[in-house]
Known about the structure:
The chain has five helices and no strands. It has helices at about 1-30, 35-60, 65-75, 80-90, 95-124. Helix 1 crosses helix 2 (about 35-60), helix 2 (about 35-60) runs parallel beside helix 5 (about 95-124) and helix 4 (about 80-90) runs antiparallel to helix 5. It is globular, with a radius of gyration of 16 Å.
Amino acid sequence: xxxxxxxxxxxxxxxNLRYLVSALVAKHFSASLPWGTLMVNVTGSFLVGAFLTxxxxxxxxxxxxxxxxVVGFCGAYTTFSSYAFxxxxxxxxxxxxxxxxNFVMNNLLAVIAAIAGVAVARWL
Length: 124
């Protein structure tokens, strides 16, 4: 039961922050690409890399915090299904370069962010 509550609490926070970040990014960037989705995927990937490395190699935190942060918060915060749908939409509209750019940026930058999160957690 504790894990379910932790996932739910993290999910509530992550989903709301996802909405706020996406809305903020939409105000400041062109709608030519789904920049908000990219932002949350990259920052969420960084957080997963940093949190898991920090809590397994540095501070040895209670593993139940993974339910709160990784499963709940990052699961609701990151937007793989939105990213997939938006990329498919760009392809359907024949914006193939934009679709390819969105695909490459989300995948490449999210992996780089996860690696950076691991590196930062190990450096601290």
